[in-house]
Specification:
single chain, about 100 residues, alpha+beta, 3 helices, about 35% strand
Length: about 100
């Protein structure tokens, strides 16, 4: 598996639009994404971290290089206070419990 971790800050008042955009992305169908998590930081409610897991590095690169992803990124970027920080890499360990507690 392969993925990216992104740190970003949402412009004040744009949280609901960001949530709507993420919901919109849920309906894309399979583009190699295994899962996605977005965290809001306790000490700064405008700061977020997003972790996206892909089936493979190839799936990640195929998605990242597509015109459709570029269009999605541009919509996402409009909601941000600055360019996001991206950190890509191979996933060397994962564990997910089978039931939410």
């Amino acid at each position: 598996m392969y993925g990216t971790v992104c740190r970003f800050q949402v412009k004040p008042g744009m949280e609901a639009k960001m949530a709507g955009l993420m919901k919109e992305y849920e309906n894309l169908g399979s583009i190699g994404i295994v899962g996605e998590y977005i965290y809001r930081m306790d000490n700064n409610p405008n700061e977020f971290y997003m972790a996206v897991v892909f089936e493979s590095e190839e799936a990640y690169k195929r998605n990242a290089g597509s015109p459709e992803q570029d269009a999605r990124y541009r919509k996402f970027r409009e909601l941000l206070a600055a360019d996001p920080e991206w950190h890509d890499g191979t996933i060397v360990y994962s564990h997910i419990e089978s039931a939410v507690r």
